[in-house]
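Troubleshooting entry. The earlier prediction with 1-O-phosphono-alpha-D-glucopyranose gave an output that would not parse, so I re-checked the input for stray whitespace and re-submitted. Clean input:
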Amino acid sequence: MSVQVAVIPVAGRGTRLLPLTKCQPKEMLPLGRKPTVQHVVEELTASGIREMLFVTGPGKTAIENHFDIDVELIEHLRVTGKEDLLAELDFEREEIDYFYTRQRRQLGLGHAILCARPFVGDRPFLVALGDSLIGLNHESDVCRRMIDCFEETAADAVIAFQEVPRDEVEQYGIALPKGEAGDIFDLDDLIEKPSRDEAPSNLAVAARYVCRPSIFQELSQTQPGKGGEIQLTDAFRHVLAQGGRIVGLRLRPGEKRYDVGNFESYFNAFLECALADPEYGDQLRESLRKLL
Ligand code: G1P
């Protein structure tokens, strides 16, 4: 398999979720019974990736603790006769290698990815934003499809896209497809958070990218863009301007992106996750029916 490593940026301060995120990373907020970032890791492992590099920042140590093997807790559950709960910690024993590096200055998503350079080296890699997941209960194989597409097209990058309502385009990187955009399409351009009038389409970057290591060189030369931050989108834009090939892959109908970027999206994501829970979903649906 060509892509074996995922870079998971989790350095953002989560200011849109204050006060919730004052002392805890937004990536640790629960979606149903698990923290968001555990869902993301499970989505990635379901696609065959076993090497995860988190790009962290201030106040994010809870993420590292979460993926550690907690021998004391296991022992405590055993001696207190709570063996039935041990299954909840099975994820700790997955054969996954976790690595962590710090983004020492908050200079944007592009800069966070650049922090992965010494670790990733000359390997292709997948980027999965740590505050977003695709599909519930690992039902999405979008990362697998992106890797397959990357191998088949030999493109410089493959990016996942979702259609968004026109009045939401300014929250996303937006594609200008070459011609009619099918399920897989070539990009002509990519614009970070355009206004509604500037937006060339309603196809929005959906938090998953497959990149060649050459993107690091682009990022090292990318100047601050939207919001004064070094944008990953701008590095891709430069690749396109130089005649490179970037392929977009649409999420399938029903394949949704959930994120914990703001309260509106977080509340919706939590509810959908809880409703999809095999054990508690039906009970919650019933309570909501009564409530509404
Ligand atoms: C980032 C990217 C943007 C993308 C979005 C969702 O923005 O810069 O291009 O569409 O993630 O994947 P953020 O939400 O971090 O501001």
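This one parsed fine. The radius of gyration is 19 Å.
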